[in-house]
Amino acid sequence: MNEHFFQCPYCWEEVSVLLDPSVRQQTYIEDCETCCNPIEFHIEFESNELQVFEARPIEQ
User: Fold this and answer.
1) Which end of the chain is more exposed for a tag (fewer CB within 10 A), N or C?
2) What whole-number distance in Å separates Cα of residue 58 and Cα of residue 56?
3) Residue 60: what pLDDT?
4) DSSP letter (8 states) at residue 11
5) Rounded-to-integer distance, Cα 51 and Cα 11, Å
6) CB under 8 Å, gap of 24 or more: what pairs does 3-10 form?
7) How far apart are CA 58 and CA 38, in angstroms?
8) Which of 13, 43, 45 has its CA nearest to residue 53?
9) Average pLDDT over residues 37-55
10) Are 37 and 8 in contact, with CB atoms under 8 Å apart?
11) What pLDDT does 50 receive?
């Protein structure tokens, strides 16, 4: 597991997520640990290197 830091698209705080490089493409929803709003993550790895990281707000 790799720790990755990013800025929350809601509260703009820097938070971290754990990423699993053994799964090449991932899309999932997880709540911000600071403001608890849902964030949609789209992640892609190639040769265990992070290639794409997107953290998008979910319109409610």
Assistant:
1) C
2) 6
3) 65
4) T
5) 25
6) 4/50, 4/53, 6/53, 6/55, 7/55, 8/32, 8/34, 8/35, 8/37, 8/39, 8/55, 9/39, 9/55, 9/56, 9/57, 10/35, 10/37, 10/39, 10/57
7) 6
8) 43
9) 96
10) yes
11) 96
